[in-house]
Amino acid sequence: MAKTAKSNKITGNIIFYLLLVIILICATFPFIWMVLASFKSMVDLLNVDKMFIFKPTFQPYLDVFSKYDFLRPIFNSLLVGVVSTVLSLIFGLPTSYSIAREKQTIFSGIILVIRIIPAISFLVPWYIIFNKLGLTGTYTALILAHLLVSLPLIIWIMIPYYEQLPKELEQAAWVDGCSRVGTFFKIMLPLSTPGILTSSILAFIFSWNNFIFALVLGTNDTKTLPTAVFNFVSYTEINWSSLMAAAVLITLPILIISLALQRYVIAGLTAGAVKG
Amino acid sequence: MRSTKRLICMLLLFTMLVSLFTACGSEKPAADSTTANSSAAANSSSTAKPFDDTKINFIGFGAMWTNEIVANLDKFKEETGITVNFQQLANDQLSNKIAVSSAAGGSDLDVIAFRPLQETLLFTNNGWVEPLDEYISKSPDFDINDFFESGKDICAIDGKMYGIPLMTEREIVYYNKELFAQAGITSVPKTMDELMEAAKKLNNPEKGIAGIAIRGKGSDAVTQFSGFLRAFGGDFIVDGKAAINTPEAIKAFQFYGDLLKNYGPAGVANMGWTETQSLFTQGKAAMRIDADSQYGFALDPKSSLISDKVGYFVLPEGPAGAKPFNIVAWALGISSGSKNKDASWEFIKWSLGKEMDVKTALAGNPSTRNSTWTNKEANKNFPADLVEVINQTNPIGVGTDRPFMINVGEARTVIGNVITGAILGKDVTAMANKANEDFQKLLDKEAKK
């Protein structure tokens, strides 16, 4: 009896890992292909026989920086991503705290509506407003546009976070003479660091990947990485090698952030998921 | 709980309405800014150095032409003082960006590159591009008469020019000389039947070599299909009516479908120009039909395994003759909302002027000027046998490669479905009848406007 249970467990394990490997191959294959392709010359890249065995070259990466000036978009993406995330935190954290503590469901409702409406429907009105303000093609316009999406994201991740922090902690501070603002900064903020990390990572990733805002609101000077990728697509040919090298460079920071801070990202995705 | 729900609904409605109104309100400011622009332009042209410190935005596509122009922008600045801010996008993104910007006044666009066959009607109907006749008449050195007549026609609506042709392309057949020799084919196909015959001989699935590769993916395929449709005596629109279910058209669909189904590469029904290009340059397709502007990729040893084996021939003739397209792929125009129209014209005049046109031709751009094509020096970088095929195609070429209408995108999808269906071996007659109905509906919708 014990023996069959054990062998059952082993077969179960084998099936589990087999499935895991299959899923892993499916999920990572595009990435592996991308990385391999970024080290190939165009001739090898299109050659199916040289899928895994080929003479690696760094030329695509050199081209990305020498022929196509990729530094500017990297800088732009970083600037827009960091500033919009920091601003979202500055505006969003006090908002979610007060919504959580004072049960301001109307406000949270409004914010949720903004989150539900597809961001693209804001695009034309935004464009007109920015045009009138003379802001089209500036970093300000891009950052404001990204705020529109990252702010509700941060607020809605942080509301349940503040709700679950015990009120007694604050009340104890009040008894000791701390002001309401003081408790927020001295007690609640430090306690919510994991939540802040989670939400800002997600907000940053959104901003980093966003394409449509940068396409319409950006110009050559302010274009971000996702739009810069189109430099490799020309009317008569597509430079796949450099395109893949650029894709690797764009994915790398997000990959590193996600792996290093995996715990927080997952926590953020499931925050409030099973709340009664 | 119910009140919260109702609140959310109200808010949702409110936000939608607001964005609707903001969008509607855009027409007025656009008109205002045009008048302001013209007076600003008048002021600037009266000063001695009119364009010092002027900045213009130019959005366009990537190609050999653009690379050469971008490399020379410093010289342009030296001559005129104009700084050109260039943004490169892919076809559809470019079109979208122009649409969104123009709908909102278009003041951040100056020079725009557009595809005359795809976008002229839409852009002029909405008033997004500026008529250029006034500028042209002010610039005799530009010599507008030097441009191909058919190119100018396609950029003009009701006698007004809205764009200056930039790049031409023709439908030609690329072939792999080595594979032709191996199959024992000594002369290139001259008729559609010979083409089918050759494709049959060259097709070698065991070796993974397809007889012929042409676009098979729905709307992408429409442009290449046009040459076949007309060779069989059909056309997309005849006397203003949809005509894609005529006996000639059905024959053409059937032929195109059979050709690719029997002798095309595996999965051809999902292929666009990049896929057939890869197959051909990897030596996996013996023939390929597409635009001649893409020749560079096949000849570059860095991207092609067959760089020394490429040959070209004119699209074979069908029952109604040889009817390849010969079109203007791109043109330059000025956005109506631009605040720097004079400077924008200065840029167009320079970039498409005779001097730069020779330079861009040397860089590999198929020009739209007669003087460049007759200039031996300017064409020396084109392969001689390609120039021969181009010169044979030019006189017989048809000026459009797709139905010329506003909603060409949807029309291409409708027609493309029949092409893909034919390749997959479906009932072509039934599909063409159904598509013709849908196509006619699209035409009716436009006629009403």
Q: Average pLDDT of chain B, to the nearest integer?
A: 86
Per DSSP, what share of the residues of chain A sits in E-state strands of 2 or more residues? under 5%
Number of alpha- plus pi-helical segments of chain A: 14
Judged by helices, strands and strand pairing, the structural class of chain A is mainly alpha
Helix content of chain A: over 70%
The percent range for strand residues of chain B is 5-15%
The best one-word shape of chain A is flat
Q: Report the radius of gyration of chain B as a whole number of Å.
A: 24 Å
User: What is the tally of helical segments of chain B?
Assistant: 20
Poorly predicted regions of chain B? 17-48
The CA-CA distance between the termini of chain B, in Å, is 48 Å
Task: Name a few traits of the molecule.
heterodimer, A: 276 residues, mainly alpha, MetI-like fold, B: 449 residues, alpha/beta, D-Maltodextrin-Binding Protein, domain 2, 2 domains, eight-stranded mixed sheet, two-stranded antiparallel ribbon, 20 helices
Describe this structure in words.
- The complex is a heterodimer of chains A (276) and B (449).
- By secondary structure, chain A is mainly alpha-helical.
- Chain A has helices spanning 2-37, 42-46, 59-66, 71-102, 105-116, 123-133, 139-164, 167-175, 180-191, 193-209, 212-217, 225-228, 240-260, 262-270.
- Chain A folds into 2 domains: 2-59; 62-270, MetI-like (MetI-like fold, Orthogonal Bundle).
- The two termini of chain B are 48 Å apart.
- Residues 17-48 of chain B have low confidence and may be disordered.
- Chain B has 2 domains: 36-162 and 327-396, 3-Layer(aba) Sandwich (D-Maltodextrin-Binding Protein, domain 2), CATH 3.40.190; 169-325 and 401-448, Periplasmic binding protein-like II (D-Maltodextrin-Binding Protein, domain 2), CATH 3.40.190.
- In chain B, the strands form 3 sheets. In chain B, strands 1, 2, 3, 6, 7, 10, 11 and 12 form an 8-stranded mixed β-sheet that branches.
- Chain B has helices spanning 2-24, 27-46, 64-71, 73-80, 91-103, 116-125, 133-138, 149-154, 177-182, 192-202, 218-231, 247-263, 273-281, 295-299, 341-351, 354-362, 370-374, 384-396, 408-423, 428-448; strands at 54-60, 82-88, 111-114, 156-157, 160-161, 164-176, 210-213, 237-238, 241-242, 285-291, 310-314, 326-334.
- Chain B has 20 helices and 12 strands.
- Helices cover 51% and strands 14% of the residues of chain B.
- Chain B has 449 residues and is an alpha/beta fold.
- Chain A: It is found in: Cell membrane.
- Chain A: InterPro entries: BP-dep_ABC_trans_perm, MetI-like, MetI-like_sf.
- Chain A: This is ABC-type sugar transport system, permease component.
- Chain A: Belongs to the binding-protein-dependent transport system permease family.
- Chain A: Residues 74-261 form the ABC transmembrane type-1 domain.
